[in-house]
Predict the 3D structure of the following.
Amino acid sequence: MVYKPTTYCFYKFRMKLSSIFFSGMIFFTIPNLQAQQIPYKNSKIPVEKRVQDLLGRMTKDEKVGQLSKLLGWEMYDKGTHGVSVSAKLKKAVKDQHIGLLWATFRADPWTQKTLSNGLSPVEAARATNAIQRYMLDSTRLGIPLLLSEEAPHGHMAIGATVFPTAIGQASTWNPNLIQQMAATIAKETYAVGGKNGYGPVLDLARDPRWSRTEETYGEDAYLIGQMGKAMIKGFQGDMLGQEDKIIGTLKHFVAYAVPEGGHNGEAVSIGERALRQHFLYPFEQAVKSGAGSVMTAYNSIDGIPCSSNPWLLKDILRQEWGFNGFVVSDLLSISGLNGGHATASTGAEAASQSLHAGLDVDLSGTGYGTNLQQAIKDGLVEGSVLDTAVARVLRMKFNLGLFDRPFVDEKLVGKKVGTEANRAIARKVAQESIVLLKNEGNLLPLKKTIKRIAVVGPNADNVYNQLGDYTAPQADGKVKTVLDGIRAAMGKGTQIDYVKGCAIRDTSNSHIQEAVAAAKLSDVVVVVLGGSSARDFKTSYQATGAANVDINAVSDMESGEGFDRVSLDMMGDQLRLIQELGKIGKPIVLVTIMGRPLNLNWAAVHVPAIVNAWYPGQEGGLAIADVLFGDYNPAGRLPVSIPRSVGQLPVHYNHNKPKHHDYVEMTAKPLYAFGYGLSYSKFDYSNLLVDLKEEENDFVCTVSFDVENKGKFNGDEVSQLYVIDEVSSVVTAVKQLKRFERKTIGAGKREQISFQLTKEDLKLWAVDNRWKTEKGKFKLLIGSASDDVRLEGVLELKKDYL
């Protein structure tokens, strides 16, 4: 059955509906438009009036239910007769009056949804229509459900386009492209009924031992903020409720990515100044771009769990930043208050703490639900506090148009999901995300006249190792591996020999000598190593969805949620494989596919060319081949430093003063610094001009310079502006990224780059706990990386700015 939201309204009212059946369609006419007499169903009156009218009609149990977001993949049945609502949904609606679902279309080993028992895109749309029809037809008030979906690097559903993970997206240093990518994700999610996408992840990743580094935009607050704004603009568009647009959920609020010892979800030790100066900044940028939802983090900060912290959720988020969406817990994080955190003795106390702190929606349905009902009975929750949270959820539903357009058009799904145009964007993001780390003797790009190539390594032809965590099962042939890409790039005159050689972790079935034998016969060897976040059906999972770590497992998974590391060394026989290949004297290109920075020390010395692709998504193999053979000139830049040793951690470029001194064993500098990345072209910088205009309440400093492509290839250069506050009332960073631009420059051409700075860019959280831009000198550093400065200038302010 096809539902066309533009041709009908579907509600259950206490009146007789006349029905007309025509061509398999169902149209409903409403005598005398009696539905429009009920204010909350009248689309012509202001949203706030509709919210208050509906709120006044609801019982306490119905209000509590609106705050419960249950696991959505349990809410449909798929059988020979199509897709229908499940008995579990009917029971949840009857007993809990639920208001939201999460991950209804998710498929992966945790959910036990596969290509056969999960939902295709069209089936997902049918599931949405069946669920929303049930809510409108079988509940007292006919309140539709808000469907939230995982969408950080593509909708986590069967058939959706898979883009590079966030660490790769950040490596593009191209917010405009990421906005385009986010708009594509939104279109695919919206097409099947999702109205809320989980993402972007705005955690500041400064400890790569932490398992979820791949989900972040790296170590720098400014870069993360630019990417976060781009994602929100792409997801949400100009206003809520537009076609093909969804609201984003900012994750994880806040400081989740720097837990003690790299242990996922554990305590964080950070002061308010560091929080405000670095960790809160990306969230503020995304909130002020209109983000519709924010998710709390599992961790505590200074002894206060983020899911019960009114200073974060009320003072900062709502009062200071003006956030007007809803706050949602991470899965089971409310229960964590009377669990791991032990700040509440009962579930009712935990529910009270979270709701009073400003946490509106419970992802699980168990943190609130009966616990919140008990808290109300015990006098631990005031009615006004409950109403405030419920109103935020209802307001978002109205703004998204759910009451007026609850269904999706099944006929449009094929035109929006997994299209050729969407694949082209995925390939573009993958191309721009690739970072050329080393190219000794200009080994790259490889010539297409090569007669024989050996392609070796555990990630050379492994579909799931290329995709990262939070990825659905993929149909055969959909994902293009590195081997696929090399075969597609080369003609029939080239022989390509593939030998896996070894696994990521398992050492029981390595074939290193076979790889060496293939390499000896080749003209060049492409070795594809790294890591994997690929889950399998043998892995066990925690209630939160994080994988349980098993040191005896033989799966490739060494990254992804829950897989924290004590070392950054490549696992299994990978190092041994490349070392043995290195002995034969053939040109070697190392391609790394990984979710976190790994130890590349040996390769940095002994391998002439290194290409880092992170997890490049479904088109990644083609994009990598584009770079290897010169069809695309790489310009990706590292969004996170690659350390030489875990003993250096943290090793982010913008640590607080003073400068680091070296260790006994090695330098304090990373192997590859933040912002680093090579090109097949060479770029020169010149003609720096600094123009300052100070006014009473602000200033404008224009920084301009020329960049010339001195190479033979057209290419992109990523120009970066860093600032050093030379003397300040509180300790500041040794340097801080403030502007960047990725620009295409033709061979032999010159382009002028111009940046503007204002007081917002140079402010600090002063001793008296307020924002201030202090007078004095600021050194301006312009270059191609945080450690590759080409031009220096000075900005001197004559007065303070508040």
About this structure: The chain has 21 helices and 29 strands. Confidence is low (pLDDT under 50) at residues 1-35. The radius of gyration is 27 Å. The chain has three domains: 38-409, 421-639, 683-797.
